[in-house]
UniProtKB/TrEMBL annotation:
InterPro entries in the record: SRAP, SRAP-like
Enzyme class name: hydrolase
Sequence similarity: Belongs to the SOS response-associated peptidase family.
Alphabetical UniProt keywords: Covalent protein-DNA linkage, DNA damage, DNA-binding, Hydrolase, Lyase, Protease
Keyword Lipid metabolism: no
A Pfam family per the record: SRAP
Protein name: Abasic site processing protein
EC number of the protein: 3.4.-.-
Length: 219
């Protein structure tokens, strides 16, 4: 699964890296420990323009009437999401990307859970594949991050990893003229030789902690 990640760059760098036409956020600041149920930054494309704005992380489909009894879905499995009632109506019409520059998983070491951060080798930001939905009862659209099988960097620690869309494929993923069947190959594991990992502070265990020290390597 993908349950925690970071996005620490400026709005200007987000706009430049992801070729954003409309940045619809006034209060963005770097985030070092993004957790489910929080507002997250992502993008869709509409009428040829790429628009970046907030989603709430944890999908609630528009057909859910009583949200108090619904557990928001933070992840969707790439292999089966076009078969699941919560996702199948979204795979062709409501695809999005969620921006990040690292994500966390936990390994067991000497009886303790040790957080590990995964980043691209070039340390550049990247985009998770996602789905979104919105109903008249929700103040913001909600989203889920798509997961896939792990690469060789992630697999010793976890059996899933977020599906990362390469920058040159963003428009292909976001264009609703493209059927989901055409896009499944984009959800393959990110290449192992383009990713590194390192241990970080156990303070990342708490979603209430959001500080630059969380992304620093620890011995």
């Amino acid at each position: 699964m993908c349950g925690r990640y970071s996005l620490t760059i400026s709005p200007e760098d987000i706009i430049e890296n992801f070729l954003i036409d409309e940045f619809l956020v006034d209060d963005w600041s770097p985030r070092f420990n993004i957790a489910p149920s929080q507002m997250v930054l992502g993008a869709v494309e509409h009428a040829g323009k790429r628009r970046a704005g907030y989603f709430r992380w944890g999908l609630t489909p528009s057909w859910v009437k009583e949200t108090s009894n619904w557990k928001p879905l933070i992840n969707a499995r790439s292999e089966t999401m076009d078969e699941k009632s919560s996702f199948k109506h979204l795979v062709n019409k409501r695809r999005c990307v969620i921006f990040a520059d690292g994500f966390y998983e936990w390994k067991k070491e000497n009886g303790k859970r040790v957080p590990v951060r995964f980043v691209k080798l070039d340390r550049k930001p990247f985009a998770f594949a996602g789905l979104w939905d919105k109903s008249h009862t929700q103040s913001h659209p909600t989203c889920t991050i798509i997961t896939t099988s792990p690469n060789n960097i992630v697999s010793p620690i976890h059996n899933r990893m977020p599906a990362i869309i390469q920058n040159e494929q963003l428009s292909f993923w976001l264009d609703h003229q493209n059927d989901f069947e055409q896009l499944k190959s984009l959800l393959e594991p990110f290449p192992s030789d383009k990713m590194i990992s390192y241990d970080v502070s156990p303070q990342v265990n708490s979603p209430r902690v959001d500080h630059p020290s969380l992304i620093e390597m620890v011995e």
